[in-house]
Each structure stands twice: as C-alpha cells, then as structure tokens.
Sequence to fold (594 residues):
Amino acid sequence: MKRAVAILALAAALAGGPARAMQPATHILPSSTAYQPQDAIEKGLWLEMDEAERQIRGSKFLIDDPELNAYVKSVLCRAVGADKCGAARVYLIRTPQFNAAMAPNGMMLVWSGLLLRARNEAELATVLGHEFAHFEQQHSLQSFRDIKAKSDAMTWLGFVPGGVIAQIGLMGSVFRFNREMEKRADMSALDYLSTSGYDPMAASQIWEQFRGEMEAQAKADKTLAQPGEGSEFFSSHPNTKARMEYLRAAARRKAPSIDNGAERYRAAIARWWPRLIEDQVKLNDFAATEYLLAGMARGRWSADLLYARAELYRARGKAGDLALAERFYRQSAAADPRLAESWKGLGLVLLRQGRDAEGRRMLRRYLDHAPEAGDRAMIAAMAGDMAR
Amino acid sequence: MRLVPLAISLLALVGAAMPLKAEWKALASKGDVAVAGKLMLATPLAGWNSSTAQPSERSERWTRDGLALNELTFFAGVRDGEALYFKPFLADKDLPKFRSDMLPTELVELFENSNRAILGSSVFTIGKVEPSMLGKYDAVRFAYSYAAQDEGLTRRGEAVAAIVEGRLYLVNFVAPAIHYFDRDIAEIRQLISTLQLRPPKALPAR
Fold:
C-alpha cells in the first residue's frame, strides 16, 4: 500500500536523527494534566495536534463503541496508573494494521489492527504503556525538535498520503523512534506491566508475535528484504531478536504473575472481533494473515478462526486451496452450526468445485440461518436453479 | 541531510502515481457511444464527460461534475488473472485478481477487496446483493458505501457485474451519500439498464 510504504520511508528518515539528550526534568511531566507546552516549537506542535484531533473526532474511521473505548482506557489506566492516564485521550481507529501512537498533546490513537493482534490484556497494556512512555518522556517532541532543526517537519507531514490518521501514526508511533528511545519505552512499559500486576512476559510476547508475522510476510513477498537484514522497515525500529532477549531477561527480574487477562480481553473485543478479522482477511495478505490466525489459535481452532481461515483460502483460490477451504468451513460449521457465514462459504466452495447439488443445499442452509442477509436475493438465486 | 533528497524522490513518486495528462471529453448526449475498448454501447446522459485517464487498461471513466461528485466507470473484457485496477505505484501487495470461474457473490468480493486496497480503507460495507441483467446477460447488482481516510465523507455506490465468455463486464457508479448519489442514481440505473455488451466472438476453448 502506497500510504504504508511512504510512512515507513518517512519514519526511517525521521528516526535517523541523533538522539537528543533528555531535557532536565525540572518541569511538570506531560503525564500531569497540569502540563502546558513550554516553548514556541512545542506550542506550535500542540496547535497542529489539536487540529488533527478535531479531524479525528469527525473521522468515519473512529470506532465509537462506548464500551470498547471504556475498556481500552481502563487497561491504559490500570497499566500506567489512574493518576496519569487522565492525560491521555484514547481514540480507536478502524485500520487493520498493527499500530498505536500518542501525540504530545495527549491524543492517543489505537489502530484496530492492534486490538486484533493482542491476545490478552497484558499484551495490549504493553503497547499502550510503551506509547504512553514515549509520551511521558517526550520522545516525539525531541524528534520533532531534531527534524525542525533540519527542515520544516510540517511540510513533510503534508506529504504523507492517507490523511491525518497516517500523519499522526508518523508523529509518534510504535515504528517511529530511535533505538535508544524504543528501549527506554520498552523498559517503562515493562515497569508498568509489573507494577500493575500483569504477567511481565507479555512484553516480549506481543513483539515476538509481530516479528513472526513480518517474517512470514517477508518470506512470502520476495520483493521485501529479509527482516533484520537491512530492510528499511526493521532498521527504523528495533523489533529484533536482541529486543526480545532484553525484554525477556528484564521480565525474569520482575515479580512473576500469571494474570494476563486473556478471558477479560476476549470478552471485551468479542463483539468487534468478526469485523476486525474480516478487515484483515480482506487485505489480500495471505501469509501474514495465516500466521496471525495460527498465533491466535495456538492449536485450538475456534469456529470463528476456522471460518476466517477458510475465507482466506477461498479468496486465494490457488490449486488445492478450495479443498482446504471446504475442510475449514466444515470444521467451523461443526464447531458452531449457528455461524451462518460458514454455510455460505461452504456452499460457494462446493459450487466452485462443481458439486452443485450439495453446494446449493449449503446455501439454503445459510439462508435459513441468516434470513435478513443483504445478499439474500442473490444467494437464493444461486441456491435455486441458477448455473454459473 | 538526507531529508531533502527523500522529499524530492517522494514527490516524484507521488507525482508518478497520478496520470500525467488526464483530459476530459464532453460526451454527445444523442445516440449510443462505444465505451471501454468498444466492448460496450451506452447512451450518455446530458452533461457527462469521458476521461482519457483510466483506472485500468480495460476501462473507461465518466463524470458529470468531477470525480469527487460523481463517477461512472465501465470495465469491459477483464480477463482471467487480471486485476480490476492498475496496481498503485507504491503498493506492496498485488491487487486481487479476477478469475473467470468466479461466482456472482465472488465478483462482489473482488470489487470490495480491490477498492479496500486502492482506498486504504476498511470502512467499506456491501449492502444489498441481488440478481440483475447487464445487457442480455445474467448479472449481479450490488450496493455499497465507504469512507476514504482523508475525507470525512461517506460515499455510496452501485454496480452491476457479469461474466460473459469468461471475461468480466462491470459498471460502477459512485457519489457522495449526501445529495449527489440520490440526485443521479435513477438516471444511472436507466443508463445501465439500456447498456449493451458487445463481447468479442467466442474464442475456441483452450
């Protein structure tokens, strides 16, 4: 995608600047609601961010489900502390990529791709804590000062295609900072996890999972360099084996906890999960999605996961894919016969394989389960006497 | 100072992704005109224009007030293995491909996923999907709506698609949900209902 590549190219350029020494922390921290921007550059940046926030409030990409928003905010508050989390205004954005970002004015964006990828509350808390640490330690402000010294950064951001969400993603996101800043944010996130009673191992686990996904994608796409071997994407942020190792080693020094909130997490995103996985499947990114699904299932394939996997294989449609899709639809329907979409998929994949009578029967079963479906008229025609 | 060269190259990339010269030609509102490689015959409505810039080799794009306000695109004769659109210049993934054995609802999926990729949007919803005709051929008609990331606008669309002799024919109308879609959709449906397909003579089976 054009936007993603352009962002990565810019991110690499922005992250390339030398790390500034931290400013002495004699002033109030940004995580205090009493904090005010300090100088002209920071005030200007806040103005820009306030304007961006106004646009995001009106964006069609905003997930405005109050329960889900309250849940994500509560995870942030548990992680960083109720005294600090008031400084953040969290916005959930319907975009299937893994990303989160926090702007210096306190606006935090959480992409729905993160909600899909986190497997439990502790993993979500890891990324939220990581972003909050960048914010609290004013990393985007420091980077901005560096860029400002070199050129007009806002002119730069104007180049980012994809609108204000992509721009904020660039301003302060998990992919943006130099290695020293990343490590500091990683360590702070680990401290947050530990002091809030979450399993500290979650910190390495979510990054490891994401690294695996990137590797699967790179392996499938010959045009990408192998991760960690000079690819721009990985040189711009240290999602390396070394990172997993320092996170694991540091986690072992923390008090162990078995609380990762997996059940709470699943319950909280359950209503949105079908839409989140649909967005991912429709990205036409077979390798990454297959890896992601296996990582979510970890050997225990639910009806939803089987259905998503079947959709993925049917969409790719290479030799052998339809037979596999058929098997996954059947397993999904067996695990939960109420999942109407599985019957539809099974019907389609049978028709595609020339098994028309059984295919039409399965389509009728779909219509029995989903009498109000938007595609009812078309499916009914296909389930009738219509040939190809 | 690697920012400046990057700025120039990025500008060049963005520039290259756009058509170098798109020209609009007013369509005569009398009589039928051949569209999209002469594989379709349509009766234009008053005030519509055709662009020399196309979203793919096998297509043609019309508008009345500019593409932001109304867009009518004809795809004709798309072959097995081809995408609906040109791949965006900086895209890192291929667009979904048309396959001649696709089922009617799979044509809708092809359209949806191609547009999600082009728009970088997950805010894309398919509405009613129903049997229809395109020319004298069985077809699928579907409604949809979406938002693009850089505008706070919902757009509505309606399209009709058919596979004839293994090739895809699709007509798509899209306009802002506010005012423009409702203003033009009746005329557009009329145009689509009188559209004729002129598929090339069937080739011997391979």
Q: What stands out?
A: Residues 108 and 142 of chain B are 7 Å apart (CA to CA). Chain B has a mean pLDDT of 85. The radius of gyration of chain B is 18 Å. Residues 104-119 of chain B form the longest helix (16 residues).
